[in-house]
């Protein structure tokens, strides 16, 4: 790892314990104080070359930040700003590295909260939650989250990196969740090689999803994330819906693996135990870019309820209900625009491409592109676009309150099973317009006999 390169110290409680705290003098710091104002002073510091790997990771009773220049056998140095009149002592990260444990892993939550550092490794949820705001780089290592607890990583400091390491899992209780929650700006959320986030879903799976049976916790809230990236997470066995992306601005989700295939196991009625296990639900967001997702589940691979500038590319979806927009209508936010769904495969799923809007509701679906989608083993509809949903089911009667306009469907090819319908379109009169279809070839099933309101360009 080298030096801890960044230092962030927050206001800390006077009585709180410190890990290996020593007065600065004992570390032989070259320290020079400057008075910047009547309220704050800054000090510069450097370590002597005899202790070249030391770094400041905490300043009690202070607030400030410093950057320690990178380099090998150089003397780390930097500047920190603290309130005037406070004594400064320094915690180095070197000591804890020698004992081969992180600054916080052996510490109580209260102590961990005092290490405002770029190297915060946590092995329990409470410590991580207590200390999150004072860490610029958080490692969540082998955490078992207690029942009825959210691994609450909301309101992280701007620019925080969070890495899941080892196995993250969750104790069972009937409650609404979420099990994991993030918010913040310029966050980087990722997973170390071989990590797994295991939702322990089999404890909840009863074939009823969110329609009944056990109360099941939602899984991963990515709410109010701005200019942030979630990448390389390896998720399995979540109880019910996986990612809830809401209020996001410029959020990238890259190379996430979501494997809920264990939920395909059936109950005595022959229903899959995993139900309503949507992989990505997106609402009220501007700029969500999901790429390279691998999904095995029992409901939508993607469901966009509202939002603008959303892309979903390079995905592999299987076992579920397809790549969906909707249902749109009947919520606070009912407008979907500028969606680009491309270069993805959908296999062994109920539907391939799907857009559904709500009966008697208002809203809009505008400028949506599906291109380069390969289908196989689709059991209900290869392509389905319908304006008749009510309470989660089709009514057969479309209404025109949520028009679907500027829709491009190109290079959507592949096969459905023999009793599936290849393409089904049900639009209210005039409520679907400006559609461009090209290279659409869905074969292996039946032509639909129920199509209505099919706009020029499309064929049913
Ligand atoms: C120290 O930690 C490293 C990295 O986690 C690990 O590879 C190594 O085996 C550990 N050494 C001891 C003595 O625990
Ligand atoms: C979007 O977020 C990425 C990653 O945080 C960042 O590099 C990029 O500059 C952001 N773009 C805009 C338009 O804010
Ligand atoms: C339509 O959506 C695409 C993204 O698929 C976007 O690049 C384009 O600017 C949008 N067009 C309009 C007119 O907003």
TrEMBL record:
Keyword Signal: yes
Keywords tagged on the record: Cell wall biogenesis/degradation, Disulfide bond, Glycosidase, Hydrolase, Repeat, Secreted, Signal
EC number in record: 3.2.1.15
Catalysed reactions listed for this entry: (1,4-alpha-D-galacturonosyl)n+m + H2O = (1,4-alpha-D-galacturonosyl)n + (1,4-alpha-D-galacturonosyl)m
PROSITE patterns reported for this sequence: POLYGALACTURONASE
SUPFAM superfamilies: Pectin lyase-like
Principal location class: secreted
Localization: Secreted
InterPro entries tied to this protein: Glyco_hydro_28, Glycosyl_hydrlase_28, PbH1, Pectin_lyas_fold, Pectin_lyase_fold/virulence
Signal sequence extent: 1-21
Keyword Cell wall biogenesis/degradation: yes
Active site residues of this protein: 321
Family note: Belongs to the glycosyl hydrolase 28 family.
Entry protein name: endo-polygalacturonase
């Amino acid at each position: 790892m080298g030096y801890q390169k960044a230092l962030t110290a927050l206001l800390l409680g006077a009585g709180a314990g410190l890990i290996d705290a020593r007065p600065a003098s004992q570390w032989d710091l070259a320290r020079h104080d400057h008075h910047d104002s009547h309220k704050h002073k800054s000090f510069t510091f450097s370590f002597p070359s005899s202790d070249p790997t030391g770094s400041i990771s905490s300043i009690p009773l202070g607030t400030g930040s410093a950057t320690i220049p990178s380099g090998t056998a150089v003397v780390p140095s930097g500047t920190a700003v603290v309130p005037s009149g406070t004594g400064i002592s320094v915690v180095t990260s070197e000591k804890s590295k020698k004992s081969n444990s992180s600054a916080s892993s052996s510490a109580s939550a209260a102590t961990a909260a005092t290490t405002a550092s770029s190297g915060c490794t946590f092995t329990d949820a409470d410590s991580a939650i207590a200390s999150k705001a004072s860490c610029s780089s958080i490692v969540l290592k082998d955490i078992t989250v207690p029942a009825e607890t959210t691994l609450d990583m909301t309101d992280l400091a701007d620019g925080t990196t969070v890495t899941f390491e080892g196995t993250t899992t969750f104790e069972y209780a009937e409650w609404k969740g979420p099990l994991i929650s993030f918010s913040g700006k310029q966050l980087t959320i990722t997973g170390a090689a071989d990590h797994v986030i295991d939702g322990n879903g089999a404890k909840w799976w009863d074939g009823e999803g969110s329609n009944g049976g056990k109360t099941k916790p939602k899984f991963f809230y990515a709410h109010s994330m701005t200019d942030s990236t979630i990448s390389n997470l390896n998720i399995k066995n979540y109880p019910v819906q996986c990612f809830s992306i809401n209020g996001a601005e410029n959020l990238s989700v890259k190379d996430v693996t979501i494997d809920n295939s264990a939920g395909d196991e059936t109950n005595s009625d022959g229903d899959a135990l995993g139900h309503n296990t949507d992989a990505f639900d997106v609402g009220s967001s501007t700029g969500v870019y999901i790429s390279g997702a691998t999904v095995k589940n029992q409901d939508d691979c993607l469901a966009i309820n509202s939002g603008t500038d959303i892309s979903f590319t390079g995905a592999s979806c299987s076992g579920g209900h397809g790549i969906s927009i909707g249902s749109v209508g009947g919520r606070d936010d009912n407008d979907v625009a500028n969606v680009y769904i491309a270069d993805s495969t959908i296999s062994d799923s109920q539907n391939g491409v799907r857009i559904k809007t709500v009966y008697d509701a208002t809203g809009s679906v505008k400028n949506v592109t599906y291109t380069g989608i390969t289908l196989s083993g689709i059991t209900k509809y290869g392509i389905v676009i319908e304006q008749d949903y009510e309470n989660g089911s089709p009514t057969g009667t479309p209404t025109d309150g949520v028009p679907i306009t500027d829709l491009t469907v190109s290079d959507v090819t592949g096969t459905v099973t023999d009793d599936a319908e290849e393409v089904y379109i049900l639009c209210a009169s005039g409520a679907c317009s400006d559609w461009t279809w090209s290279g659409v070839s869905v074969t292996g099933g039946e032509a639909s006999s129920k199509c209505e309101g099919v706009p020029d360009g499309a064929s049913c």
